[in-house]
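Board notes (copied after class):
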Amino acid sequence: MTREYQMERIISADGKVELGLGQLIRIYESLGLERFPIKNHHDRNWNSQFVQYTPQVQDPIISFSSKSLILGLNNKQICKIRVDGNENKEIKNIELIKNKTDLFPKVDFVVDLPFNMKGIIMERINVLSKINFTSGELNRIFYDFKDDLNKLHEQGIIHNDLGHARNSTIRPNIIISTDKIRLIDFESIKLKEDTNNWTQLLEKEENEISNYFNEIIEFACETLT
């Protein structure tokens, strides 16, 4: 007799991708995860600036989009599973920037999963809202971030996807963590040596960072310093 959960499904936030719950359970099993763990490892910071980081009740899922499924393994690690077929591109980019910067999450290893999927096991970054910081603190962490980003650019590497999300004021790939700004998503990384329009891409990224600074400082000016 087929269990009922095998007929259920989960749908990505944008409605473009779905996974059968039976598929999900097999992925959980391969990673040693429980569907309803006794201990909830999700961040309970309800002021998080990203909707996808709001806690899911007793479920490993952090977010699910048409690009990827993110599972919380524990308080220190997540598993990123590309559902759009671009896992090899992301894994290649991870190798390209290994040991070159700590702006991105630390990647531990890649695992084979059911249904020909791969799981990228990486650092779980604690995400905080900018409202948790004074304007002075935001200034400090922004300029530290800009210094780190300039060092990355000097190595001939750009993130290449730091603009606004579609139909949103959220910047999905820049996050404010405990004491610094971090970058996520390795998919769009570009190397100077492989790019014909490096100057234009670099200028675009620098403009996006300047705009981001104006966004967080404009917010902070309304708070106590």
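Comment from the instructor: DSSP finds four helices and eleven strands in the chain. The first helix runs from residue 21 to 31.
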